[in-house]
From TrEMBL:
<dbReference type="Pfam" id="PF04542">
    <property type="entry name" value="Sigma70_r2"/>
</dbReference>
<dbReference type="InterPro" id="IPR013325">
    <property type="entry name" value="RNA_pol_sigma_r2"/>
</dbReference>
<dbReference type="InterPro" id="IPR014284">
    <property type="entry name" value="RNA_pol_sigma-70_dom"/>
</dbReference>
<dbReference type="InterPro" id="IPR036388">
    <property type="entry name" value="WH-like_DNA-bd_sf"/>
</dbReference>
<keyword id="KW-0805">Transcription regulation</keyword>
<dbReference type="Pfam" id="PF08281">
    <property type="entry name" value="Sigma70_r4_2"/>
</dbReference>
<dbReference type="InterPro" id="IPR013324">
    <property type="entry name" value="RNA_pol_sigma_r3/r4-like"/>
</dbReference>
<protein>
    <submittedName>
        <fullName>Sigma-70 family RNA polymerase sigma factor</fullName>
    </submittedName>
</protein>
<dbReference type="GO" id="GO:0016987">
    <property type="term" value="F:sigma factor activity"/>
</dbReference>
<dbReference type="InterPro" id="IPR039425">
    <property type="entry name" value="RNA_pol_sigma-70-like"/>
</dbReference>
<dbReference type="InterPro" id="IPR013249">
    <property type="entry name" value="RNA_pol_sigma70_r4_t2"/>
</dbReference>
<dbReference type="GO" id="GO:0006352">
    <property type="term" value="P:DNA-templated transcription initiation"/>
</dbReference>
<feature type="domain" description="RNA polymerase sigma factor 70 region 4 type 2">
    <location>
        <begin position="121"/>
        <end position="173"/>
    </location>
</feature>
<dbReference type="InterPro" id="IPR007627">
    <property type="entry name" value="RNA_pol_sigma70_r2"/>
</dbReference>
<keyword id="KW-0804">Transcription</keyword>
<feature type="domain" description="RNA polymerase sigma-70 region 2">
    <location>
        <begin position="24"/>
        <end position="90"/>
    </location>
</feature>
<keyword id="KW-0731">Sigma factor</keyword>
């Protein structure tokens, strides 16, 4: 069966066809939920954030011009909603000054015999320790597979800044994971 393009679904949704909107949501809901979860590190907050993101997308769907892919536009909205989440949670603190989050209830030891699930958990915990602007870079580049140019456009930064933030984040992740490995 042929899969309809995002553009086709958007046109149909704008005409009031509910099934087209539902198809768009189903196409991206797991990606948006996972993105939100990795940003906020709490499943209920991630679910609320995902719903907020799709409500914002629905309300603004008529403003989508199609100059860039829908997925990029969607994740730009998701990015701004994550920033709003942090601002509401810590109204007096700069987003770049958010302290590193450590979920001590799920300590994972890193040794050569780790399962893929344990490695994934260790990576998730290490990502939670990153500053928000670094976490977003890892998320967009590796989990959402955006190019540096797409990331720069979505975040309103230069391509070189995007690269610099990503490489800095990767260095920190490497350090965090090595410390975990030594502690094990």
């Amino acid at each position: 069966m042929f899969e309809r393009s995002d553009e086709s679904l958007i046109k149909q949704a704008l005409k009031g066809k509910k099934s087209a909107w539902v198809s768009l949501v189903k196409r991206y809901e797991s990606g948006i939920y996972n993105y939100a979860y990795r940003m906020v590190n709490h499943p209920d907050d991630a679910m609320d954030l995902m719903q907020d993101i799709f409500i914002a997308v629905y309300r603004n769907l008529s403003t989508f011009r199609g100059d860039s892919p829908f997925k990029g536009w969607l994740f730009k909205i998701a990015h701004y909603r994550c920033i709003e989440y942090y601002r509401k949670k810590r109204p007096l603190q700069s987003i770049d000054d958010v302290p590193e989050q450590v979920d001590e209830s799920q300590d994972a030891c890193l040794d050569t015999g780790l399962t893929q699930g344990q490695q994934s958990q260790a990576l998730h915990q290490a990502m939670q320790r990153l500053a928000f602007n670094q976490k977003i870079m890892v998320e967009m580049k590796f989990f959402q597979q955006f190019t540096f140019e797409e990331i720069a456009q979505q975040l309103g930064i230069s391509t070189n800044t995007a690269k610099s933030r990503l490489y800095s984040a990767l260095d920190k992740l490497k350090d965090y994971l090595e410390v975990e490995d030594v502690a094990a």
